[in-house]
Amino acid sequence: MKYLIRTAAISFFFVGAAAANEFESELKNLAAGQIAEIASAGEVVSAVNAQNEITGSYDQAKIDELDGKWRAEADSVDQPFIDEVLEKPLSVYLADVQEASGGLFTEIFVMDAKGLNVGQSDVTSDYWQGDEAKWQETYSAGKGSVHISELEEDESTQTLQSQVSVPVVDPDSGNVIGAVTFGVNVDNL
Questions:
Q1: Tell me: the pLDDT tens digits for 139-185?
Q2: Where along the chain do its domains lie?
Q3: Model confidence, pTM
Q4: What is 136-176 written as a DSSP string?
Q5: Which CATH class is domain 2-188?
Q6: CA-to-CA distance for 91 and 187, rounded, in angstroms?
């Protein structure tokens, strides 16, 4: 019996891996086109630059404190810190972009040079993304980098999704100043 379960798990793994590769080319094209265009929008660049001025001096203890506060509020009825971020003009802009995508984008969130959320279309589970590949393999990797996550099934919507992340580049300096992640419903590609 264990052998059958193990065999089924291995078969599922290979099916999942094949599916992830099947969409990689389309996701990279999306990253180079529509996603890159949104990542370079004035609303995104100015909000990231403004937050970098504030968070640039934060040490890891401060980052951990803010992330802990966010996580605690995510499970609470009272969410003043989360509400503050969701009410920012950038978050409103990202929610509008998500809505206008016709279901292609399931979430959008922008991160600063520390990996902290600047704005988002929906609530994320944490505030600090700096310890995750979506930020590390884009912000740290520089201009032109793209991170594409594995496919995941969203149980509530029964859709296959992948996260696509790219750096945010300041057009004036040419420097990478942050990153942006898009949840992409691959059924809508």
A1: 999 999 999 999 988 776 678 899 999 999 999 999 999 999 999 99
A2: 2-188
A3: 0.87
A4: HTTTTT-TT--EEPPPEEETTTTEEEEEEEEEEE-TTT--E
A5: alpha beta
A6: 25
